[in-house]
């Protein structure tokens, strides 16, 4: 764990050491280093409708797989300070933002309660940088980017209606408090927001928890019906994302960009009981669709979304083999 902390500190020092000359601005939105649409945890605004297969053994409805669920992600980036420097053919840009999002999933077509299943939020700060140097062209690269989130907090909560219904339908229900502080480091090859035309981008990232002894979750015996649960031991995650933007060719234009965005993330399935232990597993989150380019800085996209892996909602992250298939409206 210490070597990751040292790596982050050294990276921060090197980033700020480059600030010997250049232009600073405050509260200016920048269009680089932004999350890809397939990022499972991001500040992108999304409204999604889709079908799922597993909402845990505690969900009292037996026919929920037959109707679509609603999923919402409402996030924002607040720019604080930005820096730009250009020397000949070399350019460097960096921005520091406050970032976060609120997510929820609702069984909105359930006839009695329109039940809120899970809510969660995360909030933190992020340093985003992108560099162009002529030597990158030798490696067929347009630029490289670095994203550092030194600290963010995530907390998740089951919906009140869900908890009440689960307690009424079984005495073995338990509530787990998923809450932790984490850091993220990601490297981008060909940041798409700074480029034009057809572009294939890759992002490699990793995440660690600042207090691994506390893990991702905690529990109280009063909320687990006096059941003792197993605490997690693993806290390190890593992933790779691919983003292929097409502005010309079949099905693409300068106004309607065709986007294919895929994330492969190695995550930790929580293991609350010895019979279903903690383990690592690969998860895929894929978006295929189009992004409309308006005259404003905002982009609106419509996508087919396919997710398979660990249930991403709060304490349900002990469920694997989960899928979400549906449509997504995205505002970036």
Please summarize what this structure is.
The chain has 332 residues and is mainly beta. It is built from 2 helices and 14 strands, in the order H-E-E-E-E-E-E-H-E-E-E-E-E-E-E-E. The longest helix has 16 residues, at 2-17.
Characterize the structure shown.
This protein is mainly beta. The protein has a single domain (22-331), classed as Beta Barrel (Outer membrane phospholipase (ompla), Chain C). Helices cover 8% and strands 51% of the residues. It is built from 2 helices and 14 strands; from the N terminus they run αββββββαββββββββ. It has helices at residues 2-17, 160-169, and strands spanning 23-26, 45-52, 69-87, 90-107, 115-132, 144-158, 177-189, 199-209, 217-218, 237-246, 256-269, 279-293, 299-309, 322-331. It has a 12-stranded antiparallel beta barrel with strand order 2-3-4-5-6-7-8-10-11-12-13-14. Strand 3 (69-87) and strand 4 form a beta hairpin.
Write the topology of this structure.
Layout: H1 2-17, E1 23-26, E2 45-52, E3 69-87, E4 90-107, E5 115-132, E6 144-158, H2 160-169, E7 177-189, E8 199-209, E9 217-218, E10 237-246, E11 256-269, E12 279-293, E13 299-309, E14 322-331
Antiparallel strand pairs: 1-3, 2-3, 2-14, 3-4, 4-5, 5-6, 6-7, 7-8, 7-9, 8-10, 10-11, 11-12, 12-13, 13-14
């Amino acid at each position: 764990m210490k070597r990751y902390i040292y790596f982050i500190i050294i990276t921060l020092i090197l980033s700020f050491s480059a600030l010997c000359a250049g232009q600073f601005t405050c509260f200016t939105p920048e269009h680089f280093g932004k999350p890809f649409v397939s990022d499972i945890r991001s500040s992108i605004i999304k409204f999604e409708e889709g079908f799922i297969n597993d909402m845990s053994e505690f969900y009292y409805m037996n026919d929920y797989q037959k109707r679509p669920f609603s999923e919402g992600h409402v996030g924002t980036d607040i720019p604080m300070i930005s820096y730009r420097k250009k020397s000949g053919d070399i350019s460097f840009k960096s921005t520091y933002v406050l970032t976060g999002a609120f997510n929820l999933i609702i069984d909105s077509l359930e006839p009695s309660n329109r039940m809120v299943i899970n809510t969660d939020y995360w909030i933190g700060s992020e340093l985003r940088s992108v560099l162009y140097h002529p030597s990158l062209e030798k490696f067929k690269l347009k630029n490289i980017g670095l994203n550092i989130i030194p600290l963010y907090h995530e907390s998740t909560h089951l919906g009140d209606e869900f908890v009440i219904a689960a307690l009424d339908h079984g005495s073995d229900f338990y509530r787990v408090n998923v809450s932790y502080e984490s850091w993220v480091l990601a490297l981008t090859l060909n940041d798409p927001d700074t480029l034009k035309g057809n572009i294939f981008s890759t992002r490699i990232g990793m995440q660690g928890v600042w207090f691994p002894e506390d893990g991702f979750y905690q529990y109280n015996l009063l909320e687990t019906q006096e059941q003792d649960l197993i605490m997690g031991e693993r806290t390190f995650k890593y992933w790779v994302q691919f983003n292929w933007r097409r502005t010309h060719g079949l099905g693409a234009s300068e106004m309607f960009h065709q986007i294919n965005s895929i994330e492969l993330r190695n995550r930790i399935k929580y293991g609350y009981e010895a019979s279903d232990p903690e383990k690592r597993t690969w998860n895929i989150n894929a978006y295929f669709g189009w992004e409309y380019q308006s005259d404003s800085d905002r982009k609106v996209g419509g996508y087919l979304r396919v997710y398979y892996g660990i249930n991403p909602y709060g304490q349900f992250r002990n469920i694997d083999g989960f899928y979400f298939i549906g449509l997504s409206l995205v505002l970036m």
